[in-house]
Amino acid sequence: MNTPSRPEIEAQLALILKSGLFTAEKNPRKLLVRGQLLDSLVMRTLNGEPVDSGTIREKFFKKKPDDLPAPADDPIVKVHVSEIRMFLEEYYAKVGNDNVVRISIPHQTNMPVFEYSPDSPAMMEVKRGYYFLDNHIGEQSWGYANVHFDAAIRLQPELALAYAGKALALFNLGLETWTDSTIEEVGMEAKAVALKALKFSPNFWAAHASMGAIHSYLYEWESADAEFKIALEKNAIETRMFPDYGFYLLARGRYKEALEIAEMYARSYRHDPWVSIRGAWYLYLLRRYDAAFWLAWDVRAPQEVDNVLRRQGDWVMGLASIALEKTPNERLTMPDTHKDWKSNGLKALWGVKNGLLDLANESLLALDHAENSAFDNCLGAIARFESERALEWLERMCEQKDPTGRMLHLIPVLDPLRKYPRFHDLVRKTGLPKVTKEELV
Question: Which contacts of 80-89 are long-range, i.e. CB under 8 A and separated by 24 or more positions?
């Protein structure tokens, strides 16, 4: 994962120097020198200053260049660094085996290396948190992730990795129970947590990516641009794999980049179904319906697949089939995916498109007698051919900062509304790019 932040490294250095290994009574002067040298090596490395033997001999031991023939022949630095290396190994074996940050000095060098200890209790909690965050296993996944990140923070209060993950978990947990009255509060809380991650590790790519995702959910496009730009500068490979980065690209009209990521997901990451299903959504929004359908089919086909993941696959397959007005392969019998859909508006639209009038009427009746999202009501209005009403619901959706609004300019089921200037005015007001079908085909 990410390299520890400077505050984390300095806190770990303090723990080491306070340990019995560096404060023992036996030969206290030698121990003091080694402790001071370790402190010097760590701080010089953090400050980007040289730690070669010649520099250490001159700056730390105050030896003049002509005191000894050559740095490579000087045993003073070599012996002291070698003993510090052994002390560090002994410290982590006996005292600091549960410490989050590990400081070591590889052989043949004087430069310390800083890394997270993968088996420390705090890092184990972080790993569990990101597991639930990345895989979204079941409907309580965000809550489980949040619990593990909180546990990691209790164990290591300055662990930037935990705060970055907690920010996304909090925000997505809020979206699960989203209402227009809470979205701003959820966004503020999640931003505050992400800012803590940046406080402890200003260069941490995932903290910037988390901030970028939160800003994009709130339609704060300039801020999202700035955060994702920094994330890419710090770690382009991981940022491109970040769960919300593809949706951000789509929202900013960067369709070619989003398509490249979708194809990468489909080509290289089929062993990870959650990555694949994100790729299927990107392909659907980019109107690659056949590719979206089959990628979603691959995800949902295994019998042991998680129910939440199966529903996601069913959604993409159903939406792609609506756009095509049939399944991509006449020999394939489309499963009754609509039975699992939570959206009565989508069920109604599916029924109208496929001539299943009983399903359409039943779904529209349910839509009239339940509390639904603005987008769900919009789909119901489209199924009723009530375009003005559908546009009213879309406007309501964007006023609420419904996350679906980020894809307003792309969602194929909204095509019947694209002939109205009111629709394009809404796209512009939301800060989304103007798009034509030709751009996506």
Answer: 80/33, 80/34, 80/37, 81/37, 81/41, 81/56, 81/105, 81/110, 83/34, 84/34, 84/37, 84/38, 84/41, 87/21, 87/22, 87/34, 87/38, 88/16, 88/38
Residue 51 DSSP symbol = -
Give the least confident one: 203-212, 248-257, 334-343, 391-400.
Answer: 334-343
CB proximity list for 183: less than 8 A, separation 6 or greater: 174, 175, 218, 400, 401
Q: Are 96 and 22 in contact (CB under 8 A)?
A: no
CA-wise closest residue to 320 among 297, 352, 340, 339: 297
pLDDT of amino acid 330: 47
CB-based burial, 88-116: b 16+ in 10 Å, e otherwise: beebbeeebeebbbbbebeeeebebebeb
Rounded to whole angstroms, the Cα distance separating 147 from 130 reads 11
Compute the half-sphere exposure of residue 255: CA atoms within 13 Å on the CB side of its CA.
20
Task: Report residue 96 as tokens.
Answer: 């600091």
pTM over 0.85: no
Three-class SS of residue 104?
strand
Confidence category of residue 333, pLDDT binned at 50, 70, 90: very low
Q: Where are the beta strands (DSSP E) in 20-132?
A: 101-104, 113-116
Q: DSSP letters of 141-204?
A: HHHHHHHHHHHHHHH-TT-HHHHHHHHHHHHHHHHHT--TTTHHHHHHHHHHHHHHHHHH-TT-
pLDDT, tens digit (0-9, with 9 covering 90-100), for 255-275: 999 999 988 888 765 567 778
Paired strand residues for 102? 115
Give pLDDT tens digits for 339-384.
Answer: 556 678 888 888 888 788 888 898 899 888 878 888 889 999 999 9
Interatomic CA distance for residues 407 and 393, integer angstroms:
15
Give the bridge partners for 409, in sequence order: none
- Give phi and psi for 115, each to the nearest 5: -155, 160
